Amino acid sequence: MKFIADMHCHTVASSHAYSTILENVESAKEKGLKYIAITDHTGDVPASPREWYFHNLQVIPRIIDGVGVLQGVEGNVTGPSGVVDIPTLMPNQKLDWVIASIHDCAWKGKNDFESCTKAWINVSKNESVNVIGHSGLVNYKYDYESVIPIFRDAHKLVEINASSIFVRPGCRDNCKKIAEICKKCGAYVIVDSDCHIATHVGRFDSAIEILKEVDFPEKLIINSNLEVFEDYLRKYTNFFN
């Protein structure tokens, strides 16, 4: 299985990551990737960059050494309301790529099944969000059967996160179930590394293993097909504008 993009990459700006944008780009090129997204944390994740960092992402060239570089963010779903703490940018500025994820440090209120289900339904209504990030969390389980078709219809990509198996204990079974339901209802997934060091850019082994176990169709893995992926970019992002 060949991949053309890794759309969840952190840099030193997130403080708990260890590589620069250029180092991530270099690693992506070495691995034959055509695109990466720079998606540093925001909000209440400790030592996240402030809003001025996201304002200034526009200085990053769209193409660096042959690799398309999307200006993005990993925003936090803050509670059942589905609010995502995307930075407030300057007028006429828009990020290319937005991942919405749940992190303990940014979640407000209860994290019961009903609240988490409500949160993801509300996130699906946010037109700025492209990706439903690492949603197989053990402590934030939601109604996969009812919500994943909503993601599909709202053109949200469901992330199969290769880092989750290592850094989010106990979530593997949930990730596998999510993949099974995406397969059943025809929802696109995106395989991401969630890398925090350049050597992990494009490292998808654990995610691929899950997809193989459920015999997931490659046609529904959006970053395995350049034409399908670029079509998504044209329709739902401003990268080519």
Q: What would your notes on this structure say?
A:
The protein contains 8 helices and 8 strands, in the order βαβαβββαβαβααβαα. It is globular, with a radius of gyration of 16 Å. Strands 1, 2, 3, 4, 5, 6, 7 and 8 form an 8-stranded mixed β-sheet that branches. With 241 residues, the chain is α/β, with parallel strands linked by helices. The chain has a single domain, classed as Metal-dependent hydrolases (TIM Barrel). β3 (63-64) and β4 (67-76) form a beta hairpin.
Q: What's the name of the CATH homologous superfamily? A: Metal-dependent hydrolases
Mean pLDDT: 96
Question: Do you know the CATH topology?
Answer: TIM Barrel
State the secondary-structure class: alpha/beta
Total domain units: 1
**Radius of gyration, Cα only, in angstroms?**
16 Å
Uncertain segments are none
Portion in helices: 25-40%
Helix and strand pattern: EHEHEEEHEHEHHEHH
Q: Class, according to the CATH hierarchy? A: Alpha Beta
Number of helical runs? 8
CATH architecture, please?
Answer: Alpha-Beta Barrel
Query: Largest sheet, if any?
Result: 8 strands, mixed
User: So what's the overall shape?
Assistant: globular
User: How many β-strand stretches?
Assistant: 8
